[in-house]
Amino acid sequence: MNFRRFPFWPIAILSVAIGAISANASAQDDAKSEVRTGQVRATLLAHAPHGVPVGLPPEAAEGQPVWVGLQIEHAPGWHTYWKNPGDSGLPTELHWTLPPGVMAGDIAWPLPQEIRIGRLVNYGYEGTALLAAPLIVTPGYRPPPLADALEVKLKASWLVCRQECIPQEGEFSLKLPLRGSTALNAAAFDAALRAQPAPVQGAHQAEVQDGGQRLTVRVAGLPASARGQTLQLFAETPGIVAAASLAGPGEALGPKTWSQRWDGEVWLADLPVAPERAESPAALPLVLAAGAQGWRAEAPVAGGWPAPAPALAALPTLENALKNNAAAAPAPITAAPTGAFALALLGALLGGMVLNLMPCVFPVLAIKVLGFARHADDRRAHRASGLAYSAGVALSFLALGALMLALRAAGEAVGWGFQLQSPSVVAALAVLFAVIGLNLAGVFEFGRLLPSGIATLEARHPVVNAFLSGVLAVAVASPCTAPYMGASLGLTVSLPAAQALLVFAAIGVGMALPYLAASWWPAVARLLPRPGAWMDVLRHLLAFPMFGTVAWLLWVLGQQSGIDGAAALLALLVALALLLWTLGLPGRLRLGLGAVALALAAGLLALIGPLVTRPLPAAADAPLSGDAAAARWQPWSTERVQAALAGGQPVFVDFTAAWCVTCQYNKKTTLANAEVLAALDAARVRTFRADWTRRDAAITAELQKLGRSGVPVYLLQAPGQPPVVLSEILSVGDVMTALGRL
């Protein structure tokens, strides 16, 4: 073999791809110890200055501490919560996964700070906080023979709040070397342990008085530096003392105040008991603080607790959440009234007709135009083609409707257009349209690739081709149905199967009706030009809408699998084009170059194919920024919307998806209009974007509550008022009118 002439460029491409994948994998490994959102950066840290004490007796292991912890860096204005969150909130939870013989101790909670929100007082952390926990390596720990590290895994959940609250979670892992020390984070752990309240030994006591409405607390043994100072009090047990009543002497936000005084070296306090108390602890752990110094005392409770309150009063936000959950419960499926069902059928029929004008359907209809021209002189073939195309469209819509109903029966929350939420389906459609485009451009001919029997079957049975073109039209057109038939499709979610299938059939009949009429109306056929050389020019021209559709599908895939997935699919499409071109070559050249192209395509498929269907992480990395809430469009969640409404602000929600053409048009025109944005700001409207590009059960459920099964959907709601759903074809006038009614 002459190596000077050997084409090394395929090897170079594979090497670059391998390097990119290796770098990506390495980045993923590093990212396992860190999770970023727009509000926090959470990092799993470790501190083992003397290494991991393997095989040491307990007394020797005590001198070699091993610490792990979750460090949370908050964006300005955001906070997470202490073990007792106060009047609202939830504490951060750490769930460790460790090898046998290794245990994690309790969190060494740093001294919290008082965080006021309105009339509520919470306890938590702003800035940077490290929640450290000791690792206890027992003599029973036996690492595997070839292991060189101890693997620590953590699943953490936290609630991060400012005005609104966002529940978040993350999974972390790191490896502690068994031979060697880990001390890079010594300063962080030293600071966290110094911030932990120091234990106070002494004759502490708490006594229940005034029929269980007040507590008197006695704490002895506090250091001399604390004596005579006014101290902050944090009760570790939630719900015993209302946090708002402990805002400071004379500064209580609740109806009752507390008082404190010194009796020599003993600190005394009189505290109001929370009316919602649900526990009766035998001891009351307390944290006292003076500035950045804190002390912890555990006071036995004397006097006996009365019976707790019979029920805990729910906060207004909790009541709203419970009502929403009750409203979201599945209702029995009943038949729609005759008038409403007739309107739904009419809307579905008209919507199906309008679908023929949608840009995502045009490429398939272009193929149909060629078919009409080919049979312009054959009236019988023209009618047969129209009937077959109509049957393909109608039966495909019925099949999709049956699938949707089957998923509904199985309890699956789905929405219309859900097939394009799958990266696999998007990639398959991109491949299909790329092949069609290459065929129209003349790169290859199907007849040269297929066995003669199949090629003859295609030539002898054009009706089958027309039927399949109808099926293909539905596959591409279904995501475009929402703008015109959102209400009709939303109705099918709660209709009996028979009525729902009739709605789907009406959509199919509406979409096929113009072409069915053209196939049976001779005047339409006579208007078409005669077959000739112009057909080759038109055929090549129609390849470009196909390639445009491929570009759109690549963009949709990029929203689901990231830039790596879109680039991988593009590389595979190039390899596929090369393969199809070689298979059209004559003689031995076809076999030689075809084998090389096939090997290259197979290698790329094995190497980078998984990137195409690999979804982006649920919590994509976002820059830690203090103006996250100042962004124009915030990610949607029911909690954020309810928090905004509870704060007296109207909300505007854009339910959208990358694969929705109408959504993108409305986004670039109406929702980016300067007049609309100024009006939203003037009305203090909080704007949220619910991105349905990838499957999201919460968004699907919300759409169904609004009576919709697809996007776009635009919702405007003011506090205390029912939501207003705007038109799917959004205009500046629609938005301005709706804002004027707030």
Nutshell version of this structure?
This protein is an alpha+beta fold and 742 residues long. 43% of the residues lie in helices and 20% in strands.
Could you characterize the architecture of this molecule?
Helix 6 packs across helix 15 and helix 19 (674-682) runs parallel beside helix 21 (732-740). With 742 residues, this protein is an alpha+beta fold. The protein is elongated and about 110 Å long. Strands 12, 13, 14, 15, 16, 17, 18 and 19 form an 8-stranded mixed sheet that branches. A 5-stranded antiparallel sheet has the order 1-2-3-9-6, covered by helices on one side.
User: Describe the biggest sheet?
Assistant: 8 strands, mixed
The tally of helices reads 21
Query: What is the oligomer described by this structure?
Result: single chain
> Whole-number average pLDDT?
75
Low-confidence stretches: 1-31, 249-255, 311-332, 411-416, 452-459, 481-487, 618-630
Summing up helix and strand content along with how strands pair, one would put the structural category as alpha+beta
Distance between the termini: 79 Å
User: DSSP strand (E) fraction?
Assistant: 15-25%
Global shape: elongated
Helix content: 40-55%
- Radius of gyration in whole Å, from Cα? 34 Å
The counted number of beta strands is 24
Strands, helices and their partners?
Layout: H1 9-31, E1 34-36, E2 40-47, H2 58-61, E3 67-74, E4 80-86, E5 93-97, E6 102-104, E7 113-117, E8 120-125, E9 128-137, E10 149-161, E11 165-177, H3 186-194, E12 198-199, E13 205-209, E14 214-220, E15 232-235, E16 259-263, E17 266-272, E18 283-290, E19 293-302, H4 316-327, H5 338-354, H6 362-374, H7 379-409, H8 423-440, H9 446-449, H10 452-460, H11 462-477, H12 482-493, H13 497-520, H14 522-527, H15 534-583, H16 587-613, E20 634-635, H17 638-646, E21 651-656, H18 661-668, H19 674-682, E22 686-691, H20 697-705, E23 713-717, E24 724-726, H21 732-740
Helix pairs in contact: 1-16, 5-12, 5-13, 6-11, 6-15, 7-11, 7-13, 8-15, 12-13, 15-16, 19-21
